[in-house]
Amino acid sequence: MAPQLTLQAPLELPPAEVPGYLDRLWGEALQESTGAATFTLLVWEPSWLQQQLIRTGRIDGPLSGLLNGELLEAARQVVGEVGLPTSTAPMAPEVAWRLGQQAGDHSAEDLRGQFVDRAISAHRPRRLITLAPTLAADHPLETLVAAYCPLAEERSGSEDACGDVVVLRGGMGAIEQGLAMLQPLIPAELPCWVWWNGSMDESPELLEALAVPPRRLVVDSSIGEPRRCLDLLVDRIELGQAVNDLNWLRLRSWRESLAMVFDPPRRQLALDQVVQLDIDVEGNHPVKGLLLAAWIADRLGWHLQSSYWIHGDRPEGLGIGAEFQRTDGQSVQFRLMPVPVGISKTHPGALVGLRLICAPAGQSPLCVILCSESGGCMRLEAGGVASMELAEEVVPLPNESEEMEMARLLAGGHDSTNPLLAAAAPLAAKLLPS
Amino acid sequence: MAATQTNPLRVGLRQERVISPQCLVIFGASGDLTHRKLIPALFELFRQRRLPTEFAVLGCARRPWSDEDFRSRMAEALAEEVKQHQSAWQQFAACLFYEPVDLQQDEDVVRLGTRLEAIDRLRATRGNRTFYLSVSPAFYGSGCRALAAAGLLRDPARSRVVIEKPFGTDYASAEQLNRVVQACGQEQQIFRIDHYLGKETVQNILVLRFANTIFEPIWNRNYIANVQITAAETVGVEERAGYYESSGALRDMVQNHLTQMLALTTMEAPGRFDPEAIRNEKAKVLQAARLANEDEPWKCCVRGQYSRGGSPAMPLSGYRQEPGVNPNSTTETYVAMKLFIDNWRWQGVPFYLRTGKRLPKRLSEVVLTFREAPVHLFDAAGGSPTANQLVLRIQPDEGAGFVFEVKAPGSGMRSRPVDMHFSYDESFGEPSDEGYVRLLADAMLGDPTLFTRSDEVEAAWRLYTPLLELIEEAPWQLPVQPYEAGTWGPGAADSLLADDGLLWRRP
């Protein structure tokens, strides 16, 4: 993490003066600099977890909006203390909500929007606008403005293309009031990205107002109520908006590992003969597992026949079962099960394992098992798998931060949704039983 | 590489590296390379979603075309692909622009700068520009100068120049051209293209050597007896007589493609996978390479030229009968030579390079022959045991093979060679990208790993300087020897190895 170099300390201005100030800044004070002809990045940055951890004195400030090891460790401790299942991910909204029930009045300097990961600042956003809601609902609107130029080591030549940062901070009501000033701040001629860096459940009206097409939307479908996450993805895709889902991007290594198993042409025929697909996920958030299943089903041309809840008494929640029909009319059984883990990963619903069983006629069945680096494959190895041809792979854990993923998107984006996600999301939504 | 079947789970997963918003400027946009290679490669990248939305191609040439002319001409040239992917083409074609530009005219270059700024605004390409010089080599230097003078190469992180082969015609001209282009921009901005390096299997030489522990310990003079590098073509000179007459096989194939294969096969392990670290090692090994006999180069090199051949049913013209070729031409269409590398790893190991046109097979391969076992305990089915060979097949049937001895079935203990076979098709079944797809993407990513650096180019030319001087000053000492079209070259090439008690591998 590297603080963005600003040409001036962030200046607090009355909201109404911000557009005029920026015009003057670029017209007079920064005449020697080149305004970066890049993009606008608009970030919804509630950081509720970090705010609550600071308020309850569990971590020190400043409030940066960035994840780090100390924050995640503190959140994991909270999971145990408040009696949430151990599989609860630190980023699950219920962790912050439970913290909200606890007493505390610690505070720290709020630097949201002023700390920018180097991976993102290297792309020189022309304007970085951060909406930073505070815990105190009655906090009045504060507006901070600063111009910046790349750090010395980020400079690439004689042209120091510069940008500016705008932070809108305040209680929810104040933030909503501030929305009116946003539109003139977004240069019409440049692409605009809206990064909804919070739960997909919260503030639907605000999300609606910010994520107006053709702005490119970045969300994380692992955070929020699963039905709402999937429906929102589907709605936006159907609108023709470019949607990027960080939860989908984190599936990259799973999709790659599974594709690798079937790269040899001698194995590809088995893909037409799949009879069973099992996916295990951490905790009770099935969206990631459903997206993976939907991707497989879409690629292999399966049709969904039915889906249903699988009841049980496990604290992690309900499983999901479904039946697909293959292109040759045969049936494929699908089960997604929440499983307990000792130490959960950062985001809810991380994948633990996948099992794909293919039964080619006249040949011994092929069983493909993928398991996560930290999870192990024991549960999926049970049930007669030993008699099959076994292809087993360990999927490496993604080691990139949200900001790195975001930077990758900003590095070269598209104004349409990735076709694989566009096909998988509607099917995943249908897979989730009502 | 031919695809055997497509893995449905593989579709759309090749998005590992992201190309930044940018404008690719092609000089020589009305030429063959643009519609045969560059635009098809870019369209392929587009269809794989590896190009960002904020992308543009600006074609530049002297012809007074409009944007629409350029788009429709490219659509005609790619008619088959356009038919198959009509909607994708419509979107891609919207990225194509054209500006009539003569790089020798200052006002044209100024106008180019203005047009690029307009495209930056229109397509939000963020001022990132890749200039591709697909023009006559005579204009490489002046083209770079014009771009630099217009300030278009000022920012080394946002502007780069791709230069096609040939980079110079000998050591002196390459050195001079390097001086010119380096005066226009930094070395990191110069991408000298060698499309052989875009081939998956050429890159695989690095992975095979440095990602496996079993090869590197034996990859040296203690275990390897000799190395043969072959690039054989079945075609003749085709429509390239004009260029080929002044170039010949030595300049057209050996100095670049074969030398790159030699460098990748023989370089030391880089400290890290980093463009400069890799290019340092390639340059070092080329600087240590020399002709087997520099004082009398005619003793370690054979030149040949194909003559009439083929069969009555399918007769093949001789080189001198080809359209556009001087009937008394002494240009070589075949060359074979022996090299040494004077370093600790390779001292004393002969490297045999050969390339030619109108040979019986189209293939490129590197063959490492290992030393024989010190004692022969077993009778060999073939009379004498076959030395172990590692064959790296660059094309076709890309892959690798390892030849080793096993017990022949039956009573007794006779040995015979067998071939252990790895094939890209069988293992992956997925077509690899055409070389230009990979290289264009790398250039736009600013990754120079697969491009040749100035010192590499100069070292490669320096290596063949004694031969080039000999051909220039005393060609009678290294005459072109005729060989029948469709055969494996002149007999003298066999003698080159026979003198060392060896044979060319007959693939």
Primary descriptors:
heterodimer, A: about 425 residues, alpha/beta, Dihydrodipicolinate Reductase, domain 2, nine-stranded mixed beta sheet, seven-stranded mixed beta sheet, disordered N terminus, B: about 500 residues, Rossmann fold, 2 domains, eleven-stranded mixed beta sheet, six-stranded parallel beta sheet, 19 strands, about 35% helix, globular
Summarize the structure.
The complex is a heterodimer of chains A (434) and B (507). With 434 residues, chain A is an alpha/beta fold.
Describe the structure.
The complex is a heterodimer of chains A (about 425) and B (about 500). Chain A has about 425 residues and is of the alpha/beta class. Chain A is built from 15 helices and 18 strands. Chain A has helices spanning about 20-30, 50-55, 70-80, 95-100, 120, 170-180, 205-210, 225-240, 245-250, 250-260, 265-270, 285-300, 380, 400-410, 420-430, and strands spanning about 1-5, 10-15, 35, 40-45, 115, 125-135, 140-150, 160-170, 190-195, 215-220, 245, 275-280, 305-310, 320-325, 330-340, 350-360, 365-370, 390-395. The relative contact order of chain A is 0.14. The model of chain A is unreliable at about 1-5 (pLDDT under 50). Chain B has 14 helices and 19 strands. Chain B is globular and about 80 Å long. The model of chain B has no long low-confidence stretch (mean pLDDT about 90). At the A-B interface, helix 10, helix 11 and helix 12 of A face helix 11 of B.
